[in-house]
Amino acid sequence: MRLDRQLTVTAVLFCVATALPAQEQPAHTVAELASKIDTQIPTRDETAQHSDHLPEELAQLQGSSIMVFGARKRELADKVRELQQLLTDVKTAGGENHKATLDQMSRLWAEIKSLYPKEALQKMPPLWSCPMHQELIEQSAGKCPICGMALEPIYVTQPQLTQTSIIRAELVTKTPLEVGKRADLTLRLLFNDTGEPVRLSDLEDTHTRKIHLLISDISETDYHHEHPQPVGDGEYAFSFTPHRPDTYRIWADLMPVRTRVQQYSVADIPSTTPRQAKLASNEPENRHAEVDGYRFELEFDREIVHEKETVSGKLHVTQPDGRPCDKLDVVMGAFGHLVGFCDDFATVLHIHPLGEVIDDATRRGGPDLQFYFRSNRTGIVRLFAQVKIEGKDFFPRFIVKVQPLQHLPGT
After folding, report:
1. At what angle do helices 54-63 and 30-38 cross, to 10 degrees?
2. CB 3.0–4.6 Å: which of 149, 186, 358, 411 could bond 172 by disulfide?
3. Distances (CA, A) of 217 to 62, 89, 243, 247
4. Going by C-beta distance under 8 Å and a sequence separation of 6 or more, which residues neighbour residue 278?
5. Cut 0.85: pTM above it
6. What does the alpha-carbon distance between residue 330 and residue 195 come to, in Å, rounded to a whole number?
7. 231: which residues sit within 8 A by CB, 6+ positions away?
8. SS3 letters for 176-239?
């Protein structure tokens, strides 16, 4: 079902630092890349100096197309692919075919540039921001000082960044939830402004997936993390088994192509016994958990966690035999993830451990996961870790109390 009112979710997002190491990271803007490619596209006068790096630079330009979205982005991919093929063909074409291929390449390159806004092709340096922390604005490229993600250019043609979701979520269910019974559901995603369905091509990948569903009951005790599969135009199927007789809520974690800003679209799931539980008003802080003999210890670099302060955290995993656990499987490109629910049952903290994305599924990690934690709200955060050990998922639950920020007199 769709929520009767739109929930504004002020979410603080932390992410795996997926950027290349500094020495490998390209420092070119769209304008710089386009200017460089201009001098390399072969023409009939043969003045262009074609470089072996041109296909790579075209791919890099396409990868910098955050201001091109929807049908134009698909058109861009097709034209870049066609131009790269012509770069191969022109080497063997002769006579009139050679001239025709050169003309076709010039035309294609002009069409590719026309898909970008004029501002993106100007040489003026853009502003740079973190897609996870859009309040951060820098004058040059680099990494986010909060989460370590690579900063991305902001052009004047980008939509205004806001906390308002541009995508709404609706749930289609055959029957209400029942405790212990698998529920098969369909998530429908629609653009708020047009009502058009949201397709996978309208979404960016975040941590190996385009849609993350964070699911919790109203007591913030039973947590699930699911990845729905497309089954129709803007419709995505998923299933889970509820363990409590409560109302459940989903937060669809999305990054629309048109904004490149992560957002949550929220919807409630009907239950046979809706809203039976309620949040404990004064649940004691707990940074220790045990599941099936495995012990999980949560540590921060300071004893008291304050609102609006970024703190360094660590999750330590111990095996049932008392030895440190170094058998953590890869889950969504990392050795674990954390999700926190605040006591307003609206604000979500989606936290990822530090480090590069792990592509090799055979790698194993542990016993420690390093991460950053930050909450802009005071109160209780019910924090769930998600790790996989020898193929089995574990979701230890912790209680973190966030205290009001203390200001010294005169500051």
Report:
1. 150
2. 186
3. 42, 59, 9, 6
4. 218, 219
5. no
6. 37
7. 186, 237
8. CECCCCCEEEEEEEEECCCCCECCHHHECCECCECCEEEEEECCCCCEEEECCEEEECCEEEEE
Contact 360, 299 (CB under 8 A): no
Task: Give the model's confidence band at 274: pLDDT under 50 very low, under 70 low, under 90 confident, else very high.
Answer: low
The residue whose two tokens read 């010039």 is: 106
Domains recognised in the chain with CATH numbers:
1-7+125-278 (2.60.40.10), 30-121 (no CATH), 288-403 (2.60.40.1940)
Span 251-257, mean pLDDT? 91
The highest-confidence range among 8-12, 174-178, 338-342, 356-360, by mean pLDDT, is 338-342
Most confidently modeled range among 51-60, 116-125, 172-181, 347-356: 172-181
pLDDT: is 141 or 125 the higher one?
A: 141
Average pLDDT over residues 114-136: 68
Of the two residues 303 and 315, the one the predictor is more confident about is 315
